[in-house]
Amino acid sequence: MKMRREKMLLPLCREDEWWEFELNGDDSNPHIALLPLRPEVRAKFNETAAWEYALSMNGQPYGYHNLVFSWIDTISDNFPPPLDAHLVASVMTIWSQMQPAYATNMWNEALNKRLGTEGLDLPAIIVESKKRGSSFADLLTIPEQDDWLYSDGKCTSCVAFILEMYKEAGFFNPYANQIQVTEFTIKDAYSLNFFENNASRLPSWCNDGDDVKLPFCQIKGTYRMELPGYNTMAPYPHMN
Fold first, then answer.
1. pTM (predicted TM-score)
2. Would you say which domain of life the source belongs to (predicted)?
């Protein structure tokens, strides 16, 4: 049986439309939190630059090209046992045989970017890595570059989209040119020390109905959200 894969795009929608959907149309039990920015961070927010970036991404592809790679930073330490780069290569190889178009979108094009090649399929990518005295495991750890342009456009996941806006807004200065936010995971994002650290400045309705006062505002969700390492990491060159 063949699986049909629809192209996923980044749409821009109004905040009130999104919130109306979350209140009345989303039956997936979403867990939503507000993470307010600190006043001094908000003060340097370049709204014009952030909006220019956001509008430029309207209709661009979702981050399926680079999503696989954002959590792989080391040859072995990011994989839970028994997973390793050899098993990843095996799964990718099988999947490439079953769904070649899917494989091209999910990893082949991104791996070609890392090699500086074009159009190689997965076996050829692995062979080319060996020819260069490297390995497939090494190839997986090469950081994604925010300015890479894929065959169907610039590619960003949901968290990378927000962080790209922050980057354009000036939050990562003076290291912006040395930070690739398409390498960030959700945990990397909420660990950044951009957020409110004074509980007295949180909205009065924040965490209503909860006897535990979180350092952020949980708005929806059956379970209490936990964000380990929240608001603790200052930007530094080549982070992630």
1. 0.85
2. Eukaryota
